[in-house]
Structure formats: structure tokens, C-alpha cells
């Protein structure tokens, strides 16, 4: 089940709103975790229905008990609803936080809670009051977090623990979204000391390896884990693709703006590379991630004008090792290795069976399938998704088919193509359109374009997601891995050795050849459905 809100936050008190809550929500935003904050000043009974609906539509229910909590009848009504929803659905998780209040006072209604109930008993009927008391008792028995009034622990540690706990619960609730974390521990051990030490050095960290090996996943995990320790942070995804539609200066200005915490990233006529912005940035400890940098020159041109403050960290991912050995000096370079056999089998099974081990009777078939992916996480994920819910005879047929193509250089693409081959015709058209024209575009816009051609965009996009051929980002953009996009281009090239007989074109030389041909108006060119050419200024 998918929930509208990942976290619902129930609280009362201005001290909580401007203190603990503000820090928790800031970290949730950094981790791209959606939340609904119960901060409505309820005066009318009909307003509680909207909050009840939000509770029902949330996966994690975070309840912050403070000294003022019990004085609010609305909080107590919501708490009843929270416990009711959790009792009906075991996937819903209630996380209590006892903030500067003793859990025993909550459980037994003592202290401020006892005083609050003296007031409630003068205004409410006995059954309602008893229900509220029972709800507090049940909530106090749940496992949660306690930050006492005289606690010596830094409050930031409490925030870290709460947000990390929520992240873990969400990963367990949606195993398909956390599959990429298999084997990640060995790939982040090396970075912990670089990210946590108190050195004022500006440290640059490189992460490199083949496509689909998990570079971006590692960088994102590190970013999510440590970003709260920095005054500013920004993750620039897939800079190589972004440069196809945006100028380098534009992307740099956006990065500087985000690191400075500005709402408007671009100011006409004023580059953020200017001395005013750089002087401000040079005083801040920031974390910047540049994903998928493909040339040393691109990296140097991007970073050269930026002035980082003491203790800042820069993380760069690339498929090209020379990016880290030419021009910009890196303090640490990490080569992401393939998954070992045990890790590969686990990742494959998570996608094929929604479990970490093969289903009974599929052990040998699973091991054979895993061998073809050669430890590449992307291939394992796509291949596992292909075999999901398939019968044994289909497994054996597909594996026999792979044996006939021993060329190792094209093996990963062949594995990825299995999911494409089982698409229906309209889904294949949608896949190729995304590979050529719509990668990075807004999902709703693309669906509208597909629907105009009677391709049933919603159904088709859902099928591509289910087969791990595309992902949808938090900001509703269509994402497709470079290897999968390359497979789409390869499929179209195989339509014909003559460019004019192919359905889609994205190569300048192919287009130039067709335009210069005497047959430009012939039947051959009529087979071209679309052309896309990108010119970098």
C-alpha cells in the first residue's frame, strides 16, 4: 500500500514548534521524506476530520509528548485516532517522543498531565476522559525516544536518532525502494572518518566505477546520513545530462544558491560566481555532491570559481577514473566493486521474490540467473524484476536463451533487454520515446503526450516502473539509467542499417546524411517517427 504522507507529526506547544520540530522537519526535507505537520489551530469540530484523514493516509505517526500536550483536547482526539489506525494496520508505525516530560507522567497522568485532566473532567463526559487516559497509557508503553528536562545529551543527537529511525522504518516498509542498499556497508566504511572528523580541511572525495554499479546510490546514502552536520548541502544529480539542457554557469549558480540557503537560485545578470557570493560561501561548512561527471575539464570548470568554507566536503561520482586524476586534486578515490555472489543473490531475490532468499524450488535457477548479471546491481534489479512471478519453464527458457550469447561485453545489456522484450507494443513505444525524448521530463507532461497518441500513458509508465526500466523522482521527473537508455538506442539502431528506416534518430551524422540524400522525400524517411538533437553552447 502506498501512503499519501510518509510521516504525520502530532504535537503541541510553541517551544516544540520552534525547537525540536523545526530541526526534525528540516532533516526530513533533506532526506526527501514527505510529512504532514499537525500545526492547525483547531477551533471547530469539522476541522478535525481533515487531520483524521491525514492520519489514515500516513505510514509513520510521530507523536511528540511535551508538557502542554495533554491540555489540548484535539491532541488527545488525534492520539485516539492514531492508535486506532495502528491497531487496524500493522504496517503503520507509531513513534512516541517524550520531550522534556517523564513517560511515567504520560502513562499515569501525573504532573502537568494530571493537572490537564482535572480541567478536562470539568468539561468532558467521563467516557471521553477515560478513553483519552487509556490512549496515553497505551502510547507510553510503546518504544520511542525520551529526552528528559535535565538531559545532558545534545538535542541534535535526538533529532538524528528520530530521523534515522524513521528512515529505517520506511526502508523496511518499502523493500523495493531499499534494494540498492544491499552490500552498501562495505562501500561506505571508508568514507565515515572523512565525513565525521573535525578537520577544517576542505576534502574532495571521488567515487568511480562502471554504469549501474551503485555510485549514485552510495553518494546519496552518504549525503542523507551526514548532510545534517553541514550548514548547507546540495546534491546535483546527473550533471552530464543536466548540461544537455542547461549551461554550466546556470548549474553552478543553482548549486551556490542552494548551499547558501537562498530561495531564488538565479538572479538575472548576477552570477553566483561573483565575489559577494563566494565571500559568503567561503565562511560556510557545506556538503556538495556532483553526480556523473564525465570529463576532468567539466569538473575543473565547475569547481574552480567556488570558494568552500573550512570543513567542507565535495563528493564526485564518475565512470571515468581520469576525472579524479587530472586537474582537480582529490583526497580520497574509491573504486566501487561488483557485488559478491551472496550479495548478488540477495539483491536478485528481493526483486524476484520480495524476499532475501530464493523461493523453494528456485535455488538453482536463481543462482544461474545471478551469474549472468556479473555482480552489477542494476542488472540484478532489472533481471530479478523480469523473473518476478514467472513460472519455472519461463525461467529455464530465458536462461537457455542467455547461454546462446556468450559475448561478455554485451552481457549486461542483454540482461536488461529481457524486461523490454516482454513489454506489449504500446509499452515498447513508450519506453523508446522516453529513452530518446522524455528522460528527465515531468511525468504528468509525458503522460499527456502519450495519451494524445492513444498509448495509455498511465498504464504504460506503471509497467515500466514495475520492471525497473524507469524511476520517478521525488519531484515527479522520469529517470532512466544511462545503461537502460543506451539499450533503447541500441534497439532502434537494430531496426535497420539504414538510418532513414529507423523510427527514431538522435545522431547528428545520421540526420545530416538523410538531409543530404536525394531520397530525403522518399518512402524511407517516412519511417522516422522523431528526431532529437542536442547542441551544447
Automatic annotation (TrEMBL):
Residues annotated as domain TIR: 3-170
Gene3D superfamilies found in the cross-reference section: Helical domain of apoptotic protease-activating factors (1.10.8.430), P-loop containing nucleotide triphosphate hydrolases (3.40.50.300), Toll/interleukin-1 receptor homology (TIR) domain (3.40.50.10140)
InterPro entries: Apaf_helical, Disease_R_plants, NB-ARC, P-loop_NTPase, TIR_dom, Toll_tir_struct_dom_sf, WH_DNA-bd_sf, WHD_ROQ1-like
Chain coiled-coil ranges: none
PROSITE patterns for this protein: TIR
Key words, A-Z: Leucine-rich repeat, Plant defense, Repeat
UniProt protein name: TIR domain-containing protein
Upper classification of the organism: Eukaryota, Viridiplantae, Streptophyta, Embryophyta, Tracheophyta
Amino acid at each position: 500500500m502506498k501512503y499519501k504522507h510518509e510521516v504525520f507529526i502530532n504535537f503541541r506547544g510553541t517551544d516544540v514548534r520552534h525547537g525540536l520540530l523545526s530541526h526534525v522537519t528540516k532533516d526530513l526535507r533533506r532526506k526527501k521524506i514527505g510529512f504532514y505537520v499537525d500545526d492547525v489551530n483547531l477551533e471547530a469540530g469539522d476541522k478535525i476530520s481533515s487531520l483524521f484523514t491525514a492520519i489514515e493516509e500516513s505510514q509513520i505517526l510521530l507523536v511528540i509528548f511535551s508538557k502542554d500536550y495533554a491540555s489540548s483536547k484535539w491532541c488527545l482526539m488525534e492520539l485516539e485516532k492514531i492508535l486506532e489506525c495502528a491497531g487496524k494496520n500493522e504496517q503503520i508505525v507509531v513513534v512516541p517522543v517524550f520531550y522534556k516530560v517523564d513517560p511515567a507522567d504520560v502513562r499515569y497522568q501525573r504532573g502537568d498531565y494530571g493537572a490537564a485532566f482535572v480541567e478536562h473532567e470539568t468539561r468532558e463526559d467521563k467516557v471521553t476522559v477515560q478513553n483519552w487516559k487509556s490512549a496515553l497509557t497505551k502510547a507510553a508503553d510503546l518504544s520511542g525516544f525520551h529526552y528528559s528536562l535535565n538531559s545532558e545529551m545534545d538535542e541534535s543527537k535526538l533529532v538524528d536518532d528520530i530521523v534515522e529511525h524513521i528512515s529505517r522504518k520506511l526502508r523496511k516498509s518499502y523493500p523495493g525502494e531499499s534494494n540498492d542498499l544491499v552490500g552498501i556497508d562495505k562501500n561506505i566504511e571508508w568514507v565515515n572518518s572523512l565525513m565525521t572528523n573535525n578537520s577544517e580541511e576542505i576534502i574532495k572525495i571521488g567515487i568511480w566505477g562502471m554504469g549501474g554499479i551503485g555510485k549514485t546510490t552510495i553518494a546519496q546514502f552518504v549525503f542523507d546520513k551526514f548532510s545534517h552536520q553541514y550548514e548547507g548541502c546540495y546534491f546535483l544529480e546527473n550533471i552530464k545530462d543536466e548540461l544537455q539542457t542547461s549551461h554550466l554557469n546556470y548549474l553552478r549558480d543553482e548549486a551556490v544558491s542552494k548551499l547558501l540557503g537562498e530561495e531564488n537560485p538565479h538572479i538575472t545578470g548576477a552570477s553566483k560566481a561573483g565575489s559577494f557570493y563566494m565571500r559568503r560561501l567561503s565562511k560556510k561548512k557545506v556538503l556538495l555532491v556532483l553526480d556523473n561527471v564525465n570529463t576532468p575539464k567539466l569538473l575543473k570548470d565547475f569547481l574552480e570559481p567556488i570558494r568552500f568554507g573550512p570543513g567542507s566536503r565535495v563528493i564526485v561520482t564518475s565512470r571515468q577514473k581520469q576525472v579524479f586524476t587530472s586537474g582537480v586534486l582529490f583526497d580520497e578515490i574509491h573504486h566501487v566493486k561488483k557485488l559478491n555472489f551472496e550479495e548478488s543473490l540477495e539483491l536478485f531475490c528481493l526483486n524476484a521474490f520480495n524476499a532475501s532468499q530464493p523461493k523453494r524450488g528456485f535455488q538453482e535457477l536463481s543462482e544461474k540467473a545471478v551469474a549472468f548479471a556479473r555482480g552489477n546491481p542494476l542488472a540484478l534489479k532489472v533481471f530479478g524484476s523480469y523473473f518476478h512471478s514467472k513460472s519455472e519453464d519461463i525461467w529455464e527458457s530465458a536462461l537457455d536463451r542467455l547461454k546462446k550469447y556468450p559475448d561478455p561485453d554485451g552481457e549486461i545489456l542483454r540482461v536488461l533487454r529481457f524486461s523490454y522484450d516482454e513489454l506489449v507494443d504500446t509499452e515498447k513505444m513508450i519506453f523508446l520515446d522516453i529513452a530518446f525524448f522524455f528522460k528527465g521530463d515531468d511525468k504528468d507532461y509525458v503522460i499527456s503526450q502519450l495519451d494524445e497518441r492513444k498509448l495509455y500513458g498511465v498504464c504504460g509508465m506503471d509497467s515500466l516502473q514495475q520492471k525497473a526500466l524507469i524511476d520517478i523522482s521525488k519531484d515527479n521527473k522520469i529517470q532512466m539509467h544511462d545503461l537502460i537508455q543506451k539499450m533503447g538506442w541500441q534497439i532502434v539502431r537494430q531496426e535497420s542499417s539504414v538510418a532513414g528506416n529507423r523510427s527514431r534518430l538522435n545522431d547528428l551524422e545520421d540526420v545530416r546524411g538523410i538531409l543530404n540524400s536525394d531520397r530525403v522525400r522518399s518512402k524511407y524517411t517516412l519511417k522516422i517517427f522523431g528526431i532529437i538533437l542536442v547542441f551544447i553552447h
